[in-house]
Amino acid sequence: MPRKNVGLRTLATAAALAATAALAGCTAQAATAPPADGKSSAAPRATEATPSASESGSADPSQSPSASPSTSTPAPKVLMAQGAKGEQVRELQARLAQIGWFDDRPTGSYGPVTTTAVKGFQAKRGVPATGSTDTVTWQKLLGMTTKPTREELDGKEVEKPRAKPDPRCMTGRVMCISKTTRTLSWMVDGKVLSTMDVRFGSQYTPTREGQFNVGWKSRDHVSTIYHTPMPYAMFFSGGQAVHYSSDFAARGYNGASHGCVNVRDKGKIAALFDQVRGGDKVVIYW
Question: Which residues make up the CATH 2.40.440.10 domain(s) of the chain?
Answer without folding.
Answer: 167-285
